[in-house]
Amino acid sequence: MKVGIIGATGYSGEWLVRLLARHPRVTLSLVASRSQAGKRLADVMPVVASGVGDLTFVASEPDELAANKDVDLFFLALPHGVASEFAVPLIEAGKQVIDLSADFRLGSTALYQEYYGVEHGAPALLESAPYVLPEIADLENPDWRKSKLIACPGCYPTSVQLPLYPLLKGGVISDKGIIINSLSGVSGAGRKSTEYFSFSERVSSVVAYGSPKHRHVSEIEEQLGCFNGSPVIVQFTPHLIPVHAGIATTIVVPAIKGISELYAAWEAAYPEGKTPFVRILPTGTFPETKYVVSTNQCMMSAVKDERTGNFVITSVIDNLIKGASGQAVQIMNHWMGWDSKEGLL
Questions:
Q1: In principle, which of 99, 106, 174, 305 could form an S-S bond with 76, CB 3.0–4.6 Å?
Q2: What's the burial of 176, exposed, middle or buried (CB within 10 Å: 0-12/13-18/19+)?
């Protein structure tokens, strides 16, 4: 199958290039970028030079890309508000699309405008684009493969949903009083030129941001509410830390059952061998980002604090891979009926 990437020069786009260039079942046929149009991909990204031949960046023009007959599936690695401009003509042209932006993650235009501050560019598509977290999608929406447009989850929400999904579904935890603190590498902010996000400003410093209403709160609460069958309100505080990549999320939530029931719910939802990208660590151990960076893995563990009656749950992922590009490739694998590990090990 021939695939293309629109927005291939951002951090997520670069990882898509790396993963798709070596994927055994696809050919990377097109890379689009307004800033690099006309340049050879191998010159812009020497790390993938051996796998991309003479592939050259083309301009990011929605109608021209939609008219391309050589690409079957497009990945949109674009900022929110921009992805919808490309999705409309691509879908009208019969292309399959996986969107890594936030444009199709939420269930309503009102919620999108509240959290992103702009009107949605393609409300009709918003209603028909399924939100696909691969480990969960078949259980929650088995018809998702019928769509032409898939919304790829955000990085913070992935680190939250994977541990909480089985626990809310199984009544292991309360849906009240959920407190989430996440620490992310600076690449989570994207390739921004602002001084604030430069590594020299972030090094030797940790800072909270986006509180109390970070954009990903909308996605987290909406999805947890779907799992729970009723609204879920969380306290979510993200932090920037002086590393390039990785997310460590700590969730404190009132326990209804014991730690053995928590682990039983996790193991039932993510059986070993069937969910290769979720690794459950024993209680009393704590996952580290260094073991998941540059992989599509999510590692998680939990302990119960008998003093407070809370579970303390920790999960770690690579924000650029399991939180973005790797997950998008995993979605493609599921969509096509391939082994989920194709191109991701």
A1: 99
A2: exposed
Q: Cα(165)–Cα(316) distance, rounded to whole angstroms?
A: 16
Q: Where are the domains of the chain?
A: 2-152+324-336, 156-317
Q: Which residues pair with 240 in a beta bridge?
A: 184, 207
Cβ distance 205 to 337 under 8 Å?
no
Cα distance between residue 103 and residue 314, in whole Å: 28
Please tell us whether the domain made up of 156-317 is placed in CATH 3.30.360.10: yes
pLDDT in tens, 68-99: 999 999 999 999 999 999 999 999 999 999 99
Place of tokens 């199958």: 1
pLDDT classification of 304: cutoffs 50, 70, 90 = very high
Q: H/E/C letters for each residue in the chain? A: CEEEEECCCCHHHHHHHHHHHCCCCCEEEEEECCCCCCCEHHHHCHHHHHHCCCCECECCCHHHHHCCCCCCEEEECCCCCCHHHHHHHHHHCCCEEEECCCCCCCCCHHHHHHHHCCCCCCHHHHCCCCECCHHHHHHHCCCHHHCCEEECCCHHHHHHHHHHHHHHHCCCECCCCEEEEEEEEHHHHCCCCCHHHCHHHHCCCCEECCCCCCHHHHHHHHHHHHHHCCCCCEEEEEEEECCCCCEEEEEEEEECCCHHHHHHHHHHHCCCCCCCCEEECCCCCCCCHHHCCCCCCEEEEEEEECCCCEEEEEEEECCCCCCCHHHHHHHHHHHHCCCCCCCCC
CATH numeric code, 2-152+324-336: 3.40.50.720
Cβ(76)–Cβ(101) below 8 Å: yes
pLDDT in tens, 21-31: 999 999 999 99
152 given a catalytic annotation: no
| Cα–Cα–Cα angle for 31, 36, 39, rounded to 5 degrees | 80
Confidence of residue 296 (pLDDT cuts 50, 70, 90): very high
Instruction: Write down the catalytic residue from 152, 155, 226, 298.
Output: 155
Q: What pLDDT, on a 0 to 100 scale, did the predictor assign at position 314?
A: 98
